[in-house]
C-alpha cells in the first residue's frame, strides 16, 4: 500500500487542475503566441518542444514513480497541443509533428530499456526549453505591440514552468536495493522472488558469489536444501553474493532487478570516514585508485571482474569489501526496500518494540542521507507468523487489511511515526509478505515451528514486491 495515499492524491489532483486551468488561461490571454504571426526561428522550437512533451508525458505514465508528473504534464500540454494542431502556421505545424515523433521515439526507447530516469530528465529539460522559447515569443510580441494580456501570458508561462518542474521530479535508475538486518529473511525472500520471476516473467538469473564456500550460496543449493527441510543458513560475515534476476514486462520489455545477499551485521550504514577508509583498503588490495573503485564497485560486472582477477587479493579484505559494496548499491538505487522481521511484531510487547524502535531510527537516518529522489518501501517478512494466511487471497481486500492493521500497530513507535511523516515529501510503500502462506502463526498450536514445516515456497504477496522492483 502507498503510505498517506489520500493526501498524495489530493495534492496531485490540485496540481493537475491548476496546470490545466493555467494552460487554458494562457490560450485565452495570448493565443497569438501559437497562431502567429511570429518568426519561425522562435516559434518552431516552441512547437517542437510542445510536440515532444505529449508522448513524453504518456511515457511517464508507465512508471509509478513518474506517473503523477505525467498526468500533470498532460494537463499542461494537451490544451496547448490541440490548439496548436488546429491553428499553428506551416513552419510551426511541421515542427509540432517532428516533436511528436521525437517524443514518441524517446518514450518507447526508455520504456524498452526500463530507464524512466532518462525520460524524466528529458521531459524536465524540454519543459525548460519550451518555456524559454515561449517566453521569447511573448517578449517579441510585446516589443511590437505592448498589450497587458501578453504580460499576463508571460506570468502564466513562468507559473506553468515551476508547476511542471515540481510535478515531473527527477528519479534515479530503476535499480532496487534491499536492506535488512540479521534474521530478517533476506535469503528466503531472494528464493521467493527468483521463483516468482522465473514463473511469471519468463525470468532467469546471473550470480557473482564471493565466499569461502560458494556452493552454499547458489540458488539451486538453497532451494534443494529447502526440499529436505533445511533453512538457508545465515550468510557468512565474509560472504557476498549478487544475484541479477531478469525477465520481461508485458512480454516485451526487458526488466532486471539485482539482489545483494550479505550478513545482516552490515545493514547499519557506514559513516563517511569509515566508508572512505574501507574504500582505500579495497583499492589498495586490487591496486587501483579509490575513485576508480568507487565508480565501479556497485556494478555486477566489476564484482565479476574482482572475482576472476583479484580473488586472492580481496579474500582477506571481505570485512571492508562487503560494507563498501552495500554502501555503493544504496547510493545508486532508485528504489530501496527496508525489511522488518515479522518475529519482532509477534513479540511486539516483549523485546520486539525495543528492537523495532532502534531499527526504524536507523532506517530513517538512511532515508535522510539518501534524499527525496528515491522510492522507499517497508516490507514485513514472515507475515505468516503474525496472521493465518492460508485462507486469505494475496490480492484480496483481506490482504490489504492485514497490511493496514500491521501498519497501525507499528505507527505507535515514535521512530516509525517519523517515517510516516516523511511520506508527505517522498514516496513510501508498506508491504507484508510471506515465503510460505501455509504455515500457522506463532502460538496457533503445536508443531508450527518454521524449521519443521518449511519445505516448499508458497509465496504470499511476493508479486507486489517484484512489481515494486520492476
Walk me through the structure.
Keywords: Membrane, Transmembrane, Transmembrane helix. The chain crosses the membrane at residues 45-62, 69-86, 92-113, 125-144, 150-168. There is one protein chain. Helix 3 runs parallel beside helix 5, helix 4 (64-87) packs antiparallel against helix 7 and helix 5 runs antiparallel to helix 6 (116-144). The longest helix is centred in the first third of the chain and has 29 residues, at 116-144. The protein is built from 20 helices and seven strands. It is an alpha/beta fold and 470 residues long. The strands form two sheets. A four-stranded parallel β-sheet has the order 1-5-6-7, sandwiched between helices. The protein has a three-stranded antiparallel β-sheet with strand order 2-3-4, sandwiched between helices. It has two domains: 5-167; 176-268 and 334-469, Rossmann fold, CATH 3.40.50. Mean pLDDT is 87; it is low at 447-452. The radius of gyration is 26 Å and the shape is elongated.
Task: Fill in the keyword field for this structure.
470 residues, alpha/beta, 2 domains, 3-stranded antiparallel beta sheet, 61% helix, membrane, transmembrane, transmembrane helix
